Amino acid sequence: MPMRCSGKSRPSQGIAVATAFFAAALLACANATAAARGSAAAASESPVWLIGQWTLAEDEDGGPPGMDLDEFFEDGRYIIYGPNCRESVATWHMFRGDIYVTLDVRGKGPIALIFHPNAEHTALTFTSPRTRNNAIYRRATTSVCSRIDK
User: Fold this and answer.
1) Do the Cβ atoms of 101 and 91 come closer than 8 Å?
2) Exposed e or buried b per residue across 28-46, where buried means at least 16 C-beta atoms within 10 angstroms of its C-beta
3) pTM of this prediction?
């Protein structure tokens, strides 16, 4: 909408108001984009049933039960405990009911892991994009890493 200036206002005031409005709109858009892409899930988005440790229960690729331990935190952090309890830290967020994990591999790039919860929220299914086989994770009662046993 074109701005009209009366004899009492200065044209620079209209430009200043338009610039301030544009800056506020740009900031709001940037904040919304950052929140959508955020490196961590907002606490309000963190379902209570997900927070905590999950362990490999079944693996169509033959991995032994209990060999893999994953942990989801309210602040959006995700830790996978590897051999010798080596920690790999990543981030997670939910989208349309699925859990998306972004794990950055140093010198390579990001890997996306997608977990699909069952209706009861007692199991998370991961389908390997390579083999197309499923791995089922269930709540951990003990872990392969003694320092993080409950």
Assistant:
1) yes
2) eeeeeeeeeeeebbeeeeb
3) 0.67
**What whole-number distance in Å separates Cα of residue 64 and Cα of residue 93?**
27
Tens of pLDDT along the chain (150 residues) come to 454 444 554 554 544 444 434 434 333 433 333 344 444 454 456 899 999 999 999 999 999 888 889 999 999 999 999 878 889 999 999 999 999 999 999 999 999 999 999 999 999 999 999 999 999 999 998 766 754 444
Please give the helix or strand (H or E) that residue 54 lies within, else none. Answer: strand 52-59
Cα distance between residue 114 and residue 117, in whole Å = 10
Identify whether the C-beta of residue 43 lies closer than 8 Å to the C-beta of residue 29: no
Separation of alpha carbons 101 and 116, rounded Å: 11
Token reading at 32: 């919304």
Going along the chain from its start, the domains and CATH numbers come out as: 1-37 (no CATH), 43-148 (2.40.128.280)
Please work out, in degrees rounded to the nearest 5, the angle formed at the alpha carbon of residue 28 by the alpha carbons of 19 and 92.
155
